[in-house]
C-alpha cells in the first residue's frame, strides 16, 4: 500500500539476471526522500497492476536477453501488448518513462526496452520522460545514475499536470518541495549509451542517496613510490578528493544458523524457467590436442527417457554449482568453516527500513549454508557499487575503508571500471585484497545475485541421433593478474570438465564412435528454444554457415539434420550449403575433421577452412580468418544472398569475429552491387529484419 501523504507512481521491472530489479529497487528507495511512493511490481505480476486503467505515471526498467529478446519475466506482458486487435488509442491515457538495459557487444542493443517502448507508443501512450538506454559494455551506471537524477523533476511535472487535468486545486506540496532543490534534475534527457555523449557532473551530491565523505576525516598515508593506481591503491586527484558515495543500503535479511539436519531443496525448485531434467552424461570427448591454447570438449547427454525436445540451432541451459574450493574459501572468510552443513533459516528482518522487503526468491527459506553458497548465489559476480558501499561498513582498516569508498564513489567511477568491472573482480578477490573486510552471510544474500544457469548451443540433431543431445564448449580460463590472486576456470565449463574427466577420451576426435561409458554422472538442464536460428523452412533454399572455433557447434546439428532429410526424402530438392570454419592450428584444434564426410555424401556443398596460426610456404599467404575467406568468395556469397534469397548464419565470438564477418558482408555487397557503403549496410539491415542474416554470438 502507498502512503496517503505521498503521491504514487507505478514502478515496473522486467529482469533476467537481477540488474533491472536492483535498479528499480534503487528508484523505489530514493522515491520517499522526494515525497513520492513507488508502487513496485515485477512486470510479470499482471494481477497486481492494470495499465488499462492506470492514471498515475508509470516507470519501467527492462533488460534485454538472448538475441535481443525481452527477459523471460516480460514475455507474457509483451505478448499481451502485441495483440494486433488493440486499437491505436488503447494506452492514450498512459504516461510513462522507460529505462532499457542492454549490452552494445550484441547486435540488438536494448531491444527488450525498445520493443516495449515502440509498442506503447503505437498504442497511444505518451512519454513524460525521455527513454534511457544503458550499456553494460561500458557501465550501466553511466546512463542509469543521471537518468534517475532527472526522473524526479519529470515525475513532479507529470503529477502536477495530472492534478490540473483532474481539476484539483491543492498543490503537490510534498513533491514540489523535495524536488525543487534537486541539483541536476532536467526536464528532458537525450541519453546515449555512448560514454562520449554523456557529461557527468561531480560537483556536489545528486540527491538524498548521496553522502559526502571528507578527505580530512581520514588519515591515509600514501607511499611515495606508488605512482600507479591499482585495486587497493589510488593516486591524486582521487586520493585527495572529497567523495560522493551512495547511501548505505538498508539491511533486510536475517539469517539464523541451526544445528538441525535435513534435506536440501531440489534444484528444480530454484528455477523459475519451467521444467528441468536430470540427465546422464553418456560420452565426453576432448576435441583439441593437449597443446592447444584452448581445451574444447564435446559432451553427449541421454534424453530418451525425458520429454525434452529440441531443434538444431536451439540452446539449452545447464544448472551448475559454484566451485567447491571457492565455497570453502568463502566459508573461511565468513568464519563459518565448521558450519557449512548446518541448516540456515533465511527471513526478512522485522525492523528493516527497506520498504516491501522480501526474501530473495533464489534463496530457500531453509537449506544448508553450503547449499546456499554452492547453488544459489553467484559468488563470481562483479560486485555492484551498492555492495562495495555495504562492504565499507564491514572493513576495519582505515586505508582499506577509504579505498572501498573511492571505488563506489562518483569520483572513482573510472577506477571502478578499470579495477573492478573490466578486471572481472569477484567477492573473493576483494576479500583477499582487503583483509580487514569481514562481511556477514546476510550481507552476501542481500547483494549477490542469483547463480544463473549457463546457456549452450545444441550440436546435434534428434533426427540423426534420437534420444541424444550433444554440445561443445571451450573450458574458460581466467588467468591470475594484479586484481586476481589465482587463476580460475569458468564456473560451468570448469565444473563440467572436472565432472567428466573420468570419461574423457583425449584426441579421439570422432562424431560417431560407438564406445560409451556406464558412468552415472548426471547434470540438470532445461530447454531454451531459439525462435529464429533454425534451418530454412524450405529445404531448397541455399544457406551459408560461418562458425570458427566452437562457433561450429550448431552447424554440426544443421548438417546432421540435413543428411537425414536427404536420406528420407530422396525426391526433395535441396539447396547448396556453404560452411566457413577457422581455428588456430590444423593439427591442434580442428574440432570436427569429420566435416569431410558431410562433403563426400553431398550434405555439405562447399567447405572452406582457414588456420590463423598455421605456417605456409606459399608465395601468397593463405587467408587467416573466416572473414578473409568470405571475401575470396564474394561473388558466390552475393549470389546466394541476393539472387537466390538464401540464408546467412554466424555463430561464435561477438567482439573478435562476428563484427568482422558483418563488415566483410557489407564490403561484399558494396563491391558486387557496385553500391556505396551506406546502401550495402541498408541491404544487410534488411536481411537481418527478414531473419535471413542470423547470429548466435557471445562476448
Keyword list:
699 residues; alpha/beta; Rossmann fold; NADPH-cytochrome p450 Reductase, Chain A, domain 3; 3 domains; six-stranded parallel sheet; six-stranded antiparallel sheet; 30% helix; 19% strand
How is the secondary structure organized here?
Layout: E1 7-14, H1 19-31, E2 36-42, E3 58-62, H2 75-81, E4 95-102, H3 111-122, E5 126-127, E6 132-135, H4 141-165, H5 173-179, E7 210-213, E8 243-246, E9 253-258, E10 277-286, E11 296-302, E12 315-319, H6 324-334, E13 343-348, E14 366-368, H7 369-376, H8 385-392, H9 398-408, H10 413-421, H11 427-433, H12 441-447, E15 454-457, E16 468-474, E17 477-478, E18 488-489, H13 491-500, E19 522-528, E20 543-546, H14 553-568, E21 577-583, H15 595-600, E22 606-611, H16 626-632, H17 634-643, E23 647-653, H18 654-673, H19 677-689, E24 693-698
Parallel strand pairs: 1-2, 1-3, 3-4, 4-5, 4-6, 20-21, 20-23, 21-22, 23-24
Antiparallel strand pairs: 7-8, 9-13, 10-11, 10-19, 11-16, 12-15, 12-19, 13-14, 17-18
Outline:
Keywords: Amino-acid biosynthesis, Cytoplasm, FAD, Flavoprotein, FMN, Methionine biosynthesis, NADP, Oxidoreductase, Phosphoprotein, S-adenosyl-L-methionine. By secondary structure, the chain is α/β, with parallel strands linked by helices.
Give the total of domains: 3
**Could you tell me the radius of gyration in angstroms?**
27 Å
Query: What characteristic shape results from the CA principal axes?
Result: globular
CATH topology of the largest domain: NADPH-cytochrome p450 Reductase, Chain A, domain 3
Helix share, percent:
25-40%
Which consecutive residue ranges, at least 5 long each, have pLDDT under 50? 169-224, 506-518
Per DSSP, what share of the residues sits in E-state strands of 2 or more residues? 15-25%
By CATH, the superfamily of the largest domain comes out as NADPH-cytochrome p450 Reductase, Chain A, domain 3
The top level CATH class name of the largest domain: Mainly Alpha
Class derived from helix and strand content: alpha/beta
Q: Which CATH architecture of the largest domain would you pick?
A: Up-down Bundle
Count of DSSP H/I helices: 19
Task: Give the CA-CA distance, first to last residue.
Answer: 42 Å
